[in-house]
Specification:
It is a single chain. The chain has helices at 138-145, 186-194, 233-244, 253-263, 303-312, 314-326; strands at 27-31, 38-42, 55-59, 61-63, 67-72, 78-86, 91-97, 107-110, 115-122, 128-134, 171-174, 198-204, 227-231, 249-252, 273-277, 292-296, 337-340. The mean pLDDT is 95. It has six helices and 17 strands. The strands form three sheets. It has a nine-stranded mixed sheet. It has a six-stranded antiparallel β-barrel with strand order 5-6-7-10-9-8. The protein is globular and about 60 Å long. By secondary structure, the protein is of the alpha/beta class. The relative contact order is 0.21. The longest helix has 13 residues, at 314-326.
């Protein structure tokens, strides 16, 4: 399939620049992937599409303040570093801007020297490997010096860091939020539980895949960056028993979807454990683990719009996106949501 097959026209004013006050009051486009029928709702109405015995799978990763602004020790030139993935021993894969000025052996200084990043290697995706040097707690220093790494299409500065976290975020490690989950409130989750729907958590730390555009015309040549996941025995048991009872499994977000599809066997049974996922889902993929998907509206030509196109059909998705534009839905991270089932 060609990259152009996943393009669409989006007016810039429909790109949400800030979160709405009440998470659950965002709009919800409901797409029937069999018929193509579309409904327009409010996000809190999502509870009406679940039935007793169904299961909702959430990604409980927590975004770390992964964007650091420092200066190159040799020249005092400004350098931006975005943490992507910890590879142990205070060593991280990072994005660096401007990249051509970040060479192996260089040191980047943050916070008057409280944190130093030494560049020790290049990566095959254009990033760098850095070793951090510091005293005391890395987490405390990062919380003090780091900024939330909101996507480049969001021009406004985020006033409240917690609005780029889900209300159930628990496990630090992501460079970006699993944004489909931003619409849930504690009250809405309570309503869902009271209806008899199981709520379980997986962890997938969102990394480079969120930032990396598809640059090949033949999308099958694109390589996904590996992201770390964890699925507990309890979560696997609940999902598997849901399927055995003939009920539906709803994934919240493409991150939850990719994690479940990574570990599912041919019968859709979920295997607990941890590891690295680099699964790339595009049309033609045979889904094994999910029956429904809650997601935001995604960037043109992105791996995320390819995933939802695989789940619902490319033409149905592009038609839904066209209607969302016509109805003035808000797009991307702080935008409105879709339910596909």
């Amino acid at each position: 399939m060609k990259l152009e097959d996943f393009d669409f026209d989006l007016p810039e004013e429909l790109i949400a620049q800030e979160p709405i006050k009440d998470r659950s009051k965002s709009r919800l486009l409901v797409l029937n992937k069999t018929t193509g029928e579309i409904e327009h709702k409010i996000f809190e109405d999502v509870v009406n599409y679940f039935e007793q015995g169904d299961c909702l799978v959430l990604n409980n990763t927590k975004v770390i303040p992964a964007r650091l602004i420092g200066y190159r020790k040799k020249t005092n030139g400004k350098i931006e570093v975005v943490l992507l993935k910890s590879i142990g021993s205070d060593t991280w894969e990072v994005l660096v801007k401007p990249g051509h000025k970040a060479r192996i052996g260089d040191e980047v200084i943050f916070g008057d020297g409280r944190l130093i990043a030494k560049i020790i290697d290049d990566t095959d995706f254009g990033g760098r490997i850095v070793k951090f040097l510091y005293s005391n707690s890395f987490e405390e220093i990062l919380n003090e010096l780091g900024q939330m790494p909101t996507p480049p299409y969001i021009k406004k500065k985020l006033q409240d860091k917690n609005r780029y976290q889900t209300v159930y975020a628990q496990v630090p490690g992501s460079a970006a939020a699993p944004t489909a989950g931003l619409h849930f409130t504690e009250e809405l989750l309570k309503k869902i539980k009271e209806k008899g729907i199981s709520i379980v958590f997986i962890t997938l730390h969102v990394g480079l895949g969120t930032f990396r555009p598809v640059k090949v015309e033949n999308i099958e040549e694109h390589k996904m960056h590996a992201e770390y996941y964890e699925i507990s025995n309890k979560t696997a048991e609940v999902i598997n028993s849901t399927r055995q009872a003939g009920r539906k499994v709803f994934a919240v977000g493409t991150t939850s979807t990719r994690t479940l599809e990574t570990v599912a066997d041919v019968n859709g049974q979920i295997k607990p454990g941890s590891g690295w996922s680099d699964i790339f889902i595009y049309p033609g993929y045979n889904f094994k683990a999910i029956d429904g998907l809650i997601t935001n509206f995604h960037l043109p030509k992105s791996t995320l719009i390819m995933l939802v196109s695989a789940f619902a059909g490319r033409e149905k998705i592009l038609n839904a996106y066209k209607e969302a534009v016509s109805e003035r839905y808000q797009f991307f991270s702080f935008g409105d949501a879709m339910l596909i089932m």
